[in-house]
Amino acid sequence: MSQLAKSLKSRIEELTASIETQTTELAAFQRVLEIELAKETAPTGKSPSETSAHSVPLPTNGAPSHDLAAIEFTGNKTAFVVAIVRAHGAAGAAPKEIREVFTSRKIPLSENLIYTTLSALAKEKKLQRRDGRYYAGGVASVAQKNGSASPTKRRISPAGLKAIREAVKKRWAAKRAADRAAAK
């Protein structure tokens, strides 16, 4: 298979995956719009929790109910996961509890979305994981609460920045030269 055919096949696969992702995201936005429109047209005699499945707080494994009704889904699933974890407060949230919130609000999600998101947020130190539960604040804020010094931010020296700039210029010059040679 020629290089061009491989490149085109790769690009088609990327576009197909992008379209599938956008279709899922579109469905989520449409669901949120339906919920918002239902809120506006709801009878005034009922509370929002009576008119929308979106507002029902869920019990979490015998733990006290958290105010999950206040969490609004804006279409960003990562932000929604973080909001759910924060709403659980000091008790933390298990992936199963997060999935229950998504399910109760009928928000579509892929099989591993929650686990992938939680792992990425823990790696970025935006959440902390202990005993299978996730807690808001991450490692840095926990260290600050315990009175220990905050982690120092690493900085690149001016000489290091200069070296990086030169290397990048050199790399792009070589790429442009290779592209020109291939075009001839």
The helix tally amounts to 7
Assigned CATH superfamily of the largest domain: Winged helix-like DNA-binding domain superfamily/Winged helix DNA-binding domain
**In angstroms, what is the radius of gyration?**
24 Å
Q: Order the strands across the largest sheet as they lie in space.
A: 1-2
Biggest sheet record: 2 strands, antiparallel
Portion in helices:
55-70%
Alpha-carbon distance between the two ends: 22 Å
- How many distinct domains? 2
* Mean pLDDT across residues: 78
What's the total number of strands? 2
Low-pLDDT parts are: 45-65, 139-144
Give the CA-based shape. extended
Strand content: under 5%
Quick overview of this protein structure:
By secondary structure, the chain is mainly α. It folds into 2 domains: 3-145, Arc Repressor Mutant, subunit A, CATH 1.10.10; 154-184. The chain has helices at 3-40, 48-51, 77-88, 95-104, 113-123, 138-145, 158-183, and strands at residues 127-130, 133-136.
What are the defining features of this structure?
single chain, 184 residues, mainly alpha, Arc Repressor Mutant, subunit A, 2 domains, two-stranded antiparallel sheet, 7 helices, 2 strands, 59% helix, extended
Written overview of the protein:
The protein folds into two domains: 3-145, Arc Repressor Mutant, subunit A, CATH 1.10.10; 154-184. Strands 1-2 form a two-stranded antiparallel sheet. Mean pLDDT is 78; it is low at 45-65 and 139-144. The protein contains seven helices and two strands. The chain is mainly α and 184 residues long.
